[in-house]
Amino acid sequence: EAGVTQFPSHSVIEKGQTVTLRCDPISGHDNLYWYRRVMGKEIKFLLHFVKESKQDESGMPNNRFLAERTGGTYSTLKVQPAELEDSGVYFCASSQDSFAGTKNIQYFGAGTRLSVL
Amino acid sequence: AQSVAQPEDQVNVAEGNPLTVKCTYSVSGNPYLFWYVQYPNRGLQFLLKYITGDNLVKGSYGFEAEFNKSQTSFHLKKPSALVSDSALYFCAVRPVDDNTDKLIFGTGTRLQVFP
Known about the structure:
CATH architecture of chain A: Sandwich
Radius of gyration of chain B: 14 Å
Shape of chain B: globular
Number of strands of chain A: 11
Structural class of chain B: mainly beta
Oligomer: heterodimer
CATH class of chain A: Mainly Beta
Shape of chain A: globular
Order of helices and strands of chain A: EEEEEEEEEEE
Order of helices and strands of chain B: EEEEEEEEEEEE
Distance between the termini of chain B: 40 Å
CATH topology of chain B: Immunoglobulin-like
Number of domains of chain B: 1
Structural class of chain A: mainly beta
CATH architecture of chain B: Sandwich
Number of helices of chain B: 0
CATH topology of chain A: Immunoglobulin-like
CATH class of chain B: Mainly Beta
Strand content of chain A: over 45%
Largest sheet of chain B: 6 strands, mixed
CATH superfamily of chain B: Immunoglobulins
Largest sheet of chain A: 7 strands, mixed
Strand content of chain B: over 45%
Number of domains of chain A: 1
Largest interface: A-B, 27 and 24 residues
Distance between the termini of chain A: 37 Å
Number of strands of chain B: 12
């Protein structure tokens, strides 16, 4: 079974440009999460989708960030325009429906390292 | 504010010796507790979790963690370290008193096991 996959693995852009990150969750997982780790700090929650609906977007830093999950499958996270402080590693995670036996375990991708110059 | 503390940026241990990676949390109620590990160029990999029951939980690769409610701690342990255990370890909690699935992470502890 394929795990959570994220594209690209690394992105280098200039301040003011736009970047789109993609996450493909584990097949059949309704829950999809985005997190971010700024260098050396804790991993912080950004938002949570249940299928195509945003369940919790309390961690989104500002309106330069837009997350979508059309059709309830893969998700994209767009940063427009990017600022220097957006640099970090963006992780995606997925989990099964809460009624499943392995509820509460979030499975993570390898992350996308974003560098804004 | 809800938070997770991993007080050590790095833990060094000789192969074969026991290891402990510390984690304390400040979260109301009875949260779910997790440990994840990140090997170089890999994603976060689930190690173990505590939901309820026995305070000592066993996980992958011989790791275990001890939940201490009075000290709000969830330290990761292994009786005999391997060089291949060298990685970045994250403690995480999921509050269960609010309607959210989000994980709150610590800053991570780098474990270095020397031959």
